[in-house]
Amino acid sequence: MKNISATLAIVWRIAGPYFRSEDKWAGRGLLGAVIAMELALVAIDVLVNQWQNRFYSALQASDWDAFVTQIWIFVALASTYIALAVYKLYLNQWLQIRWRQWLTRHYLGEWLESATHYRMQLKGDAADNPDQRITEDVKNFVEQTLTIGLGLLSSIVTLFSFVIILWGLSNAAPLHLFGTDLMIPGYLCWGALIYAIFGTALTHWIGSPLVNLNFEQQRYEADFRFNLVRVRENSEQIALLKGEGAERGRLLDRFGFVIGNWYAIMSRTKRLTMFTASYQQAAVIFPYVLVAPAFFAKKIQLGDMMQTASAFSSVQGALSFFVTAYRSLAEWRSIVARLDGFEMSVASAANLPAHEPAIALEAAGGSRIICLEQLCVNLPNGTPLVAADAFVIQPSERVLVTGPSGSGKSTLFRAIAGIWPFGTGAILVPEKARLMMLPQRPYFPVGMLRDAVVYPAKPDTFEAARVRDTLIAVGLPNLARRLDEDGHWNRMLSLGEQQRLGLARALLHAPDYLFLDEATASLDEPSEARLYRLLAEKLPQATIVSIGHRSTLDAFHTRKVAMMQDGEIHVLGSAGAPAEKEPTAAR
After folding, report:
1. Does the predicted TM-score (pTM) go above 0.85?
2. I need a labelling partner for 157 at 20 to 30 A (CA). Which of 6, 249, 445, 459 fits?
3. What residue numbers bound the domain in which 258 lies?
């Protein structure tokens, strides 16, 4: 019961917000209509049960007129049932797609809010493969929640509807054993209850491992799919290293987990199906065994026996809901657990900057400088990486940051951008300042080239002529004629072309502060020099901070910062000037 309560609390936490959202009236209306139709279908089942008594009694009495009348009544009931079933399915699917649409937008908004997706990766959370959570798990959650919820509601209403009928039939057809009538009030109801309790207990005992097995199966499937995507994305490097054999082995190892867990599911499902199939088949004959003695003793008619069997089957089926739906319930619980883990991971990553200790990103008021105050940048495990105090980047300054690999240059940029919270101290950034970070390998969304260049702005933010002129200016005249061409630009272009395209993006957006993280490292030195001169010409007021290792970059910067492996920062007034140690925060 504790597990059931916990699961239902999680389900309500996931499902409840939709029915309180801006789409609540449509969602509530559709849900209400579906529930009403489900209840109407149960009512028709009750009418059909009563019809069976009259129909079989007419057959037993060879009453042709009554037989024809009952046929027409059945046609009316069946037609109504079909219409209700069709529109219940239609409205159910309509509710599913609206609910899924809202939940997908909600999860995408939470996941892509303020670099939460990035922090989730840094933390190494167990909520792996968010793509699966937002696509497959959301779809299955909505579909199975409605299916199981409506099935449970139908079972409850069916139970209360038919138990009254079955109780009355128990009195009309007493238990007849060895020529004696045993007056046991509601014995058919008690028989159905005992039968269902027995079946439910054994089903849970046999099938309970399926919850964890289904959870693991989805995780292994997602991990295998993710690694296939990784191979596709890095096919060039794998081909150059002739790593196909190694990748094949790694992929088969991961697929081995899929196969092994699937065999465990097969074994457990076989046992569960063997019992549930036996249980359901026995349930067909069980009510006849109970009432047959009364029928052969001429205590009841054929119609009474058929109605009793039908009512017993309905009550037993309602009580056995967990037996018949156990596999679906096991899959549903694993889906709920995965979405719960995803929500908790998103919430944890989103709240990470608010937890102490964390780097504070503050507005510098009327100042136009970027200032690092008592800053200590750490790795996610708490290891100190960079320390600086009273380090200032002046307006329109050109700063070159150098240092060995692993000294924290790129991580410092991430902290200034506000996506790296691990550490202490504060970073003061001018209010409403526009910052742009250009990494060594820029990102371009799949689609038209014009959209990729102006990203993340809207496609119509810049005129096509201006985008075309900018591409020509950065040395990409061939691409200037392909603005309306669709493509996967990170695959189609060389890294040097991608870096030129990234600089074209910077020229279009004209940020106040431009941070270049080895953003020209794949270009030859003359091309790199031309692009830095272009930045100085087109963005004269912008502050540019570059990470680079070439000595030729000194000519394009007014100050040089050397970051040491131990986290200390040394500042040079200009290229070749004596080093001056920057004040650092205490370790």
Report:
1. no
2. 6
3. 2-353
